[in-house]
Predict the structure.
Amino acid sequence: MVAMDGAHAEELLADLDKALAELEQAAGRGWERGIEGKWTAGEHVAHIAVTMAESAGMFGKAAALHRAGFLPSRPRRGPMQWLWVHLVIAPGRLPRGGKTAARFVPAAHPKREGTLRELQAALAQHRTVTQSLSAPERDQLWTPNPFLPRWHYTLPEMLRVHAIHARHHAKLIGEIP
């Protein structure tokens, strides 16, 4: 398990690369296939792409604020968020059954090539932000949790979150008959 800190960001990016490759491979079996009433494989990938694109934009803005000296100090964490990060995110577990926010629901029947381009573009944005910062700056950079805005993630934590999330959806795709 790679530490979720700025010094290990390159390793976290490599793990995210691997997780996205696993997601693409899982979806390769049948982009339009799905379980009745559930997302198709392509929709799972599109969901990951849209969540990654939003966080990439948020971290890009946070990096600009940091460079300008206007990024507020990282907020303190309460006990529930601390538990979530250390007992769920750090070990790489994502519980099933969560509802996604409406803005993260994928469009029906996304096109494979465009969706995969969007996924890689979001990954490239995360890589650009990550590589533009020193290890301590990566630890200072934070944004609100997209699902629970009163919580937050650091950049290294978000890289782990995306890898876990991609693997979670790859597993769901694997359950499609």
